[in-house]
Amino acid sequence: MISYGRQSIDQEDINAVVETLKSDLLTTGPKVDEFERRVADYVGVNHGVAVNSGTAALHAAMFALGIGPGDEVIVPPITFAATANCVLYMGARPVFADVDPDTLLINPSEVERRISSRTRAIIGVDYAGQPCDWDVLRRLADAHGLVLVDDACHALGAEYKGLKVGALADMTVFSFHPVKHITTGEGGMVVTNAPDSAQRMALFRSHGITREQALFADFDPRPSDRRPPAFYYEQIDLGYNYRITDIQCALGISQLGRLEVFLARRREIAKRYDETFAGMAGVRPLAMHDGNLHAYHLYVVRVDAQRRDELFNGLRERGIGVNVHYIPVHLHPYYRKVLGTAPGQCPVAEAAYKEIISLPIFPDLTEEEQDRVVQALKSILPMEKS
Ligand SMILES: *Cc1c(COP(=O)(O)O)cnc(C)c1O
Q1: Tag placement on the chain: N or C end, fewer CB within 10 Å?
Q2: Strands (E) located in 112-176
């Protein structure tokens, strides 16, 4: 089976992990700090806080922003459930704003329609690896006093008008799951220029416990040379154990060194698909906005809704591990039960969902394998342009 996405692990990656296994610290050691610094430097922001999944990173971002009961956060429906779940974790309400019909990115005019007196933040998702329209989202956020969060789990290495994803929103979330651009097995990170948010997220990932004297609530620092005993720490908030290990971060650092090669290969594969489908009437790739440099986590095409499931099943039968990204989140039974969401609320996303299919794209996909994908697709949908 050729899957839609998978990791690329080389001997250097393996060596980096083995080296850390032989070191003193398996978790919360120098590799975590180094990985955070390197990712933050790569995207051009001041702080990175690494955690054990992209979902934990989204949760940490919502916590740092103080999202809570009574608040609303605007999210797109075409995304992984975690984008909206993180709002529910905080007791707040995700509000779904429909997507653009050509790119399936959150539609800023739909966002504007959903802004209320309770809205606190907007989470944009750089779906498939293409950045949202961040300038327009920024104008909306500024006009209404909202915070911008970028769920960039698809988009490490993407650019918008010459700026790297990571430097576009107030907080940006990455995932290092094996199907994403670089992997730590499981893992995630929030990058931000806000030092107070970074500090809150660092607390949140480790029980809300601190050993930093400057943060202590219950330690009297007078006289000024008084120091707490070495064992002393304080829990000053309620956090979780969302820590990532040094073993994982050693892999992450090594993978980050390969990111440009990964991105170049993904873009090459996408270009080959684009050229093939330009000659096929029945297969339409998603539109690309000018000024965007795509990171191609996914390569999504749209086909006739009547034939999508036939194509999906036919490709799976032929050993092509296609997928559908995503079932609109507001249609899931849990959301319908707790938020009362229903079909018809995001008609563009609901229509697109019936037409989309994600084809294999990952750095180690060979041209022969890609040709197999295209041949299989043509054998099921023989619709050459006349
Ligand atoms: C992968 C992903 C997540 C969650 O990341 P995990 O590391 O799997 O927890 C969140 N949002 C989007 C859009 C994703 O693709």
Answers
A1: C
A2: 119-125, 147-151, 159-160, 163-164, 171-175
